[in-house]
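Hi, here's the filled form for the chain we discussed.

Project: internal
Contact: R.S.
Residues: 366
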Amino acid sequence: MKAARFFLLLIYVSILVVNVSAQDDDEVIRVDTQIIDVPVVVTDKDGKPILNLKKSNFVVYEDGKMQELTDFSATAAPFEVALLLDTSGSTRQDLALIKRAADNFIASLRPGDRVAVIAYKTERTETEAYAVSEVLSNLTDDRAKLKSALDKAQNSNSTPYYDSLLQVVEKVFGEKPQDEFRGRRALVALTDGVDSVSVGDFEEVREKFNESGIVSFFIQINTRDYFEENLLGECHSEIRRFSPAQISRYYRLFPKTSNMEKTSDFCKLGDFERLDISKRLYELAEKEMDELARNSGGKVFPVEDLSGARAAFKKVADEIGTKYSLGYYSSNEKRDGKFRKIKVELKGIPAGATVRAREGYTAPIK
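And the returned structure, exactly as it came back:
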């Protein structure tokens, strides 16, 4: 009898150890699994935001498979915003206007929303001057500090646009967010989107933004006429030029089999080539902004000039104030680095409602 009891006790302890180990394993898997954040805006048939929705009103699919929602934040939850101001040469005459528009934008955000400010400046050595992107203020809800940061914004002699986007991911949002801000981070960029001197490129930007879940909003300024105003004619010291990086980017738009004659010397370009380069670079910028915005659930707001920036900033602030955030752990545990499509559907909502959400993300790699 004693032997039998001892044997039964041994079995019970073994089962208990297995169960505890299994629970520990589950916890490890949970920690290592990436939560996928999906910012969402829902509007009625007239385009007005629908507020006061609940978690039960949303269904999320990844590559066609329904996912279990584990996180939900309503529209009242706060946001963290990286405010990127393109203060390059094309906006040289309007720096004061940019600062006022940015200040109004910050003032229109809600208490609790945190903002970081990024702008460009020119640094100089004994032999050259070059543009860099600078974080003027880290994330804060202190409006006085943010105003002081805006006051420090300078002009730059060129545009490190891609580098500044990488800086948003790596420096401004480099650390994991606090729980209240998870899935509620946004880029708001006032720019024409035309890069001239970055070390990074758009492929790197796209990959990092697809991984991060940052919602991207662009106030797209039309600076093309200003840029082309002094682009033509004899090549002299005062003429506006393309950078070698821009010329190289232009040639990459054509097939490798193209027999077109190439040069990195701006002065060897004819007027037709200069205008074609300008046209294609602006088209490329528009395409890239649209891709980042669409994939993240954000939006592009085109404006003809900086006088329209204030109204566009107001629309962005309204968008941020009406965002829901959904979160789920993907049922696909593969770490294959592939892009996965996200689709959000609504239930229990009046007919005619539409949803705009993050369209996908890049899975991690082992």
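Let me know if anything looks off before we file it.
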